[in-house]
């Protein structure tokens, strides 16, 4: 089937191809290096480091050095232009915001948050290659399916409270990718089992593959 949507930049295309973004959020970013190794080993290729985590900018820079070429490291919870510039300077390949703010003028793709059809369309019109549907935990995949009926050109990434067992349904409803935070990372950032994290990561990657098979 021909895709009539706008062509994507390479970073956004890679996120859509991978199907998920792992969101690293914790009081402190000290455990993110170990977590990232586990996620990448499981086949996750896009990681979002939230700026609400103490040491986030240093973590972004460190992960860029640590992880294999081709791994995408982005910054999340970006709320101001100054934060956006600092994240890009640290090496972020993409920026994500929980609010409808395109952070115009940045040199990397920006994915603003939206909830209503009007907000999603406004983000798209402002140039967002992917719109973050947030918070999606209280919604059902049917909401996205209904949204994409009149707005088929929109590429939407549901984020916030997405359970691992819901990945297939969200992708089946037309999600370009899903953002996974707590249900994927669990307690790994505060001393939890990395073995359990690896199992959750494999579950997520397998779910994307199943949804797209």
From TrEMBL:
Write the record's keywords in alphabetical order, separated by commas: Carbohydrate metabolism, Lyase
Known InterPro entries for this protein? Answer: Aldlse_KDPG_KHG, Aldolase_TIM
CDD domains under this entry? KDPG_aldolase
- One MF term from GO for this chain? lyase activity
Q: Superkingdom of the source?
A: Bacteria
Could you confirm whether the keyword tRNA-binding appears in this record?
A: no
Q: Does the keyword Lyase apply?
A: yes
The record's annotation in Gene3D superfamilies points to: Aldolase class I
Which protein family is named in the record?
Answer: Belongs to the KHG/KDPG aldolase family.
Name used for this protein in its record: 2-keto-3-deoxy-phosphogluconate aldolase
